[in-house]
Amino acid sequence: MASPGEAEEMNLLKRAIEAYCDPTPKSIQEYLMLFGSARRPEALLDLLEEIDDRGLFWPTLHQEWTTFDAIPQAEFVKRFRLHRPLWSRDFWSDDERTIFDALPDPFKAFWGGDASRRPTYCWTLDFAVAKKFALGHRGMRHPKPTVHTAQIFKSTVCMFLNERNESEVVLFRKPWQSRRKAINEP
Question: How far apart are CA 140 and CA 122, in angstroms?
Answer without folding.
Answer: 18
